[in-house]
Amino acid sequence: MTRGGRHLVLVGLMGAGKTAVGARCAERLGRPFIDTDALVETATGTSVAELFASVGESAFRDLERRAVEDACSSPEAAVIACGGGAVLDPGSRRRIAAAGSVVWLRAAPARLAARVGDGSERPLLRLGTPTATLKRLAEARAPAYGAVADVVIDTDDLSVDGVADAVLDAYEVGEPG
Ligand code: S3P
C-alpha cells in the first residue's frame, strides 16, 4: 500500500485512536512518533483548546498546515498522527497522500463520542452533543479522508492493540521487501 513516501500516516476523526494507535505502531516499528496537534502545541506553548479560544479555528488551521508540512518532511521515516481536521486543507491533503502509506481509522459516531469522553479538550465538540457533531463531521469529511487513504480500518470493536495489529498488517504487506 506504499505510495511513494516512507511515513505511516494515520487520519480520521477525533476519537478514532490516531494518537494511541500511532504511538503503539511507532513503538513496534522502532520509529519516531509525530502528532500534529502536539507539534502545534510545542510550537506555540499553548494547548489546541486554548488556541481555538484565543486565536480562533482559522489561525489554528494555519498552524496545523505548517505542522503537517513539518511532519511529512521529517527526514526519518516516522509514524504520523494527523489532527482530525488536517485533511481539510488541499495542500495538506497532497502532502499527506505523498508522504507514504495513509490509513484512515474509522468508527461509528457514537463510538467516537464514547472515546472522547466529555470532549473538553476538543473545542469543536462543545456545541451540541458530541455524537451529533461527530456524525456531521463524518459526513462532511469522508471525501477528504477517502481522498488521501490507501487503506480504511473500521475500529469499532477493536482495542488499541487490535487496531495497531491491523494497521501494521496492512502496512507491512504493502511495504516493498
Ligand atoms: C480537530 C481534531 C483535533 C484537534 C482539534 C480539531 C478536528 O485532533 O486538531 O481539536 O477538526 O477534527 P484529534 O483528531 O487528534 O482529536
Ligands, ions, cofactors: shikimate-3-phosphate
Poorly predicted ranges = none
Our estimate of the beta-strand percent is: 5-15%
Q: How many separate helices?
A: 8
**What is the element string, with H for helices and E for strands?**
EHEHHHEHEHHEH
Secondary structure: helix percent: 40-55%
Strand order of the largest sheet: 2-3-1-4-5
Largest sheet: number of strands, sense, barrel closure: 5 strands, parallel
Lay out the secondary structure.
Layout (H helix, E strand, L loop, with lengths): L6 E5 L6 H12 L3 E3 H9 L3 H7 L2 H16 L6 E3 L8 H10 E7 L2 H8 L13 H19 L2 E4 L5 H15 L3
Parallel strand pairs: 1-3, 1-4, 2-3, 4-5
Helix pairs in contact: 1-8, 2-4, 3-4, 4-5, 6-7
The chain binds shikimate-3-phosphate.
Structural notes for this entry:
- It is a single chain.
- The protein is α/β, with parallel strands linked by helices.
- The protein is 54% helix and 12% strand.
- The chain contains eight helices and five strands.
- A five-stranded parallel sheet has the order 2-3-1-4-5, with helices on both faces.
- Helix 3 (48-54) crosses helix 4.
- The longest helix is centred in the C-terminal third of the chain and has 19 residues, at 130-148.
- The chain starts with 6 loop residues before the first strand and ends with a helix.
- The mean pLDDT is 93.
- The structure holds shikimate-3-phosphate.
- Shikimate-3-phosphate binds at residues 14, 18-19, 37, 48, 83-85, 122-124.
